[in-house]
Amino acid sequence: MGDSAPQFRHESVSAGASQLLLPWVQELLAQAQINLSELDAIAVGIGPGAFTGVRLGVAAVQGLAVSANLPVISVVSLDAIAAQVIKTASFEKINASRFAIAIDARMDEIYWAKYEYQAVKPLPKRIGDIHLSSPEEIDLTGIQYLAGSAIAAYGDRLFISAAIAKDCLDSQVSVSALGILDCAQQMFKEGQLGDVRQLEPLYVRNKVALTTAERDLAFKKDWSS
Question: How far lies 139's CA from each of 22, 48, 204, in Å?
């Protein structure tokens, strides 16, 4: 957890991530010339997000942390995205103090949360709970900036409660290792370390899949609309 530039690998993988993840970890450790057991802790994104990806990350960290007897740091994905948003040129230009992160949760729903940002603080502060709702139900009251994949996925359906100017939108930002690192470093300083035995994904939605009948119904609804 030093101040030197982090070594990271961020790559979009459509399939086969389970075969790539651990070799990438080994490569990064070799590049840094450090052994796994020499780390202070292992941070992992616990969601909410894609079910398979979150489960893969958590399972891999469970194995690594147990093998090296390391504590873990659980980072909420929306918090990690928020940590990256405040570093973007578009956000800095707006100088917003209140913003929201909204990501596509599939099944015609979104995960979203509100944040407060002060330049003197290292990270934005999440206000209230993480929500799961339809795009129309997001509350943008008082929000000056909106970021996340829900913008591209649902467009105008997000802006029922309030309108936000186009230059105050960021549809490209997504969860990344650097965002997780930013959150984890601050959590480490605050002593927010966890036992790997308590590590688990953050489930905002209890139901993670549709039945065949529900998929057919959703398909007919989309087709007829």
Answer: 39, 19, 17
Domain assignment present for 9: no
Residue 35: which CATH number? Answer: 3.30.420.40
Please write the tens of the pLDDT for every residue from 117-150.
Answer: 999 999 999 999 999 999 999 999 999 999 999 9
Peptide bond into 71 cis (omega under 30): no
What is the domain range of residue 199?
Answer: 17-76+176-205
Same domain flag for 159 and 122: yes
Q: Answer whether residue 183 is part of any domain.
A: yes
pTM assigned to the model:
0.87
Strands 125-133 vs 109-116: parallel, antiparallel or unpaired = antiparallel
User: Which residue reads 């100088």 in tokens?
Assistant: 95
Domain identity same for 114 and 182:
no
Residue 87 has which token pair? 């570093």
- How far out from the chain centre does Cα 60 lie? 17
Q: Is 202 left (phi over 0), alpha (psi -120 to 50) or beta?
A: beta
**Which residues on neighbouring strands pair with residue 75, listed in sequence order?**
45
User: How confident is residue 4, by pLDDT bands cut at 50, 70 and 90?
Assistant: low
Neighbours of 73 (CB within 10 A): 25
Beta bridge partners of 72: 42, 194
